[in-house]
Amino acid sequence: MSDKEKLYEGKAKILYKGSRPNTIIQYFKDDATAFNNVKKGTIAGKGIINNKITELVMTRLGQIGIATHFIERLSDREQLCHAVQIIPLEVIVRNTVAGTMAKKFGIEEGTRLSRPIIEFSLKDDALGDPIIPENHILALEITTDEEMIEILETTAKINDFLRGLFAGIGLELIDFKLEYGRFNGEDGEQYLVLADEFSPDNCRLWDFETREKMDKDRFRRDLGGEVEAYQEVARRLGISLETEDK
Ligand code: 5GP
């Protein structure tokens, strides 16, 4: 890895400059953090699993016409992506009440919502990623009106598709977090693309029958079995975890 130029190191990933112009490499680490970095640990093999789950999800979304930053997986832990300007928002989708929503409103986790919710947090660790309403986002010019419309439409499409994908392997997609970026096309136009990752690190997945948690909540809540849960999600998606790195 040492020959690559490091651009940024985050909690779960490192970004390097890609070999082609306007590309980056996402390197997936085993490090896990929760509660804004207060809880730290590792989940053995998580980086490999999340790299491969993200590859599968981004590829399938590409096949239904969703523009993403993903180009190709390079190795067990690395994927090549288009360089984008990340919009500093966490786009959160909820199908079933859990996590902060359950706590905030005192509603039992697992209560299914009558319709999905899309909400936003400002991506700012120092402020603790505060929830930000749509009118604030527009007034602060974090996105344009057109971008906001596209984010809402694209996110709804992604939710419909992914709920079906996971339901097909016996998993309920409770909620998840997306990030979008602005990509400068070769035609000089700027496009909104799905960026970052999609993995059990940034979604909640419950087994439909047992309602067992199969995601990062196992780590956040000290439930144990996080390695096995991540492996099981990969296995159900048909992903091989055989190492390809020599
Ligand atoms: P909650 O609001 O309950 O903390 O999170 C809702 C969903 O968004 C969960 O699936 C959670 O994993 C994801 N999420 C929210 N904030 C973050 C974040 O800062 N990082 C990651 N990886 N996921 C997040």
Please outline what is shown here.
The chain has 246 residues and is of the alpha+beta class. It has six helices and 13 strands.
List the helices and strands and how they pair.
Layout: E1 6-9, E2 13-17, E3 23-28, E4 31-34, E5 39-42, H1 46-63, E6 70-73, E7 78-82, E8 85-86, E9 89-96, H2 99-105, E10 112-122, H3 134-139, H4 145-167, E11 171-184, E12 190-195, E13 203-207, H5 217-220, H6 226-236
Antiparallel strand pairs: 1-2, 2-3, 3-7, 4-5, 6-7, 8-11, 9-10, 9-11, 11-12, 11-13
Helix pairs in contact: 1-6
Bound molecules: guanosine-5'-monophosphate.
Features of this protein?
alpha+beta; D-amino Acid Aminotransferase, Chain A, domain 1; five-stranded antiparallel sheet
Uncertain regions spanning at least 5 consecutive residues: none
Can you tell me the number of structural domains?
2
Structural class: alpha+beta
CATH class of the largest domain: Alpha Beta
- Strands, count: 13
Mean pLDDT, to the nearest integer, reads 96
Rg from C-alpha positions? 18 Å
CATH architecture of the largest domain: 2-Layer Sandwich
Question: Span from first to last CA?
Answer: 14 Å
| Overall spatial form | globular
CATH H-level superfamily title of the largest domain: ATP-grasp fold, B domain
DSSP helix count?
6
What oligomeric arrangement do these chains adopt?
single chain
Strand count, sense and barrel status of the largest sheet are:
6 strands, antiparallel
State the helicity in percent bands.
Answer: 25-40%
Fold-level CATH name of the largest domain: D-amino Acid Aminotransferase, Chain A, domain 1
